[in-house]
Specification:
2 copies of one chain form a homodimer. Chain A is mostly helical and 64 residues long. Chain A contains 5 helices and 2 strands. The first copy, chain A, binds a DNA duplex (30 and 30 nucleotides) through helix 3. Chains A, B: This is Putative transcriptional regulator.
Chain lengths: 64, 64
DNA sequence: CCTCGATGTCAAGCACACTTGACATCGAGG
DNA sequence: CCTCGATGTCAAGTGTGCTTGACATCGAGG
């Protein structure tokens, strides 16, 4: 499961801490998701898609 | 997080066990997701959306 | 009745999502 | 240089996603 969070976050000039606050998770969680350490839960995925105004399918790439 | 799995599964006349096999989880997991006991992981959510030919947003309703 | 498939549910265990707290590194600017 | 914000990462703890195995219930058909 890849994702476009790093580029989208950079476009908006948000730090990992900024984004973490916007989706109500810790900074380390954002870092881990960006780095592919693990996939977010479905609720966190929904919140991430929302702050970027994208669908989950547009934000996350399911590479089976 | 609500979902339309029960109705969609009924439309197709699939048992919980049928659906479980199609998305590679246990029957109990399908039952728990349908019953709202917990939310699926993002990979399982992707697989569920795929077997129903829907987007995750169409299949799951984020009631924050 | 009695069976049988489908569903609901519990327990125990494992893996992972997420937390707080801490520390290391790195680049930009004084 | 030195600092400082941003990022990367580790450890330890909590909660949840998912498993297997078991058992109870329920409705449809013999």
């Amino acid at each position: 499961m890849k994702n476009r969070i790093p580029e989208l976050r950079a476009e908006r000039a948000w730090t990992q801490a900024d984004l973490a606050q916007r989706v109500s998770v810790s900074r380390q969680t954002i870092n881990a998701i960006e780095k592919g350490k693990f996939d977010p839960s479905l609720p966190v995925a929904f919140r991430l898609a929302k702050v970027f105004n994208l669908t989950i399918e547009e934000l996350f790439i399911d590479d089976q």
